[in-house]
Design a protein that fits this description.
This protein has 124 residues and is an alpha+beta fold. The chain has three helices and five strands. The protein has helices at 8-13, 53-59, 62-78, and strands spanning 21-24, 28-32, 40-46, 86-89, 105-109. The protein has a five-stranded antiparallel sheet, covered by helices on one side. The longest helix is centred in the middle third of the chain and has 17 residues, at 62-78. It is globular and about 35 Å long.
Length: 124
């Protein structure tokens, strides 16, 4: 899959579309999801051109990957999601329901989230 420079997240990074930002630096952007699945639902994206998790971990160097995940940790604390628990999700590809081809993580928190999938109570 080729990276589309006109995907919605690329436009948010460039400031062409507004977002309710939680955190931003030269490499990472975090903002509230407009279709919240939990009281706290924040998307964290690298500013580089990566289509999905596989693309990010294949093309970014170890320092960039570590930096990104350390920022995810900091953002979870900024949101106070670390107090009672949170879920990190990345959807990779069509079958996983990835709707924007720019690698992103969802931070979900603010309530008891229940099983990961309704039919998979054993995935706790």
């Amino acid at each position: 899959m080729n990276y589309d420079k006109n995907n919605i997240f690329a436009k948010i990074i460039r400031g062409e579309i507004p977002a309710n930002k939680v955190y931003e630096d030269e490499k990472v952007l975090a903002f509230h999801d407009i279709s919240k699945a939990a009281p706290t639902h924040v998307l964290v994206i690298p500013k580089g051109e990566y289509t999905d998790f596989i693309d990010f971990t294949s093309k970014a160097d170890a320092e960039q990957i570590l930096y990104f995940f350390k920022k995810v940790n900091e953002i979870s604390k900024l949101l106070k999601a670390d107090k009672s628990g949170f879920r990190l999700i990345t959807n990779n590809g069509i079958d996983a329901h990835q709707t924007v081809a720019h690698f992103h993580l969802h931070i979900l928190a603010g309530k008891k989230l229940g099983p990961l999938l309704s039919s998979d109570n054993h995935l706790r």
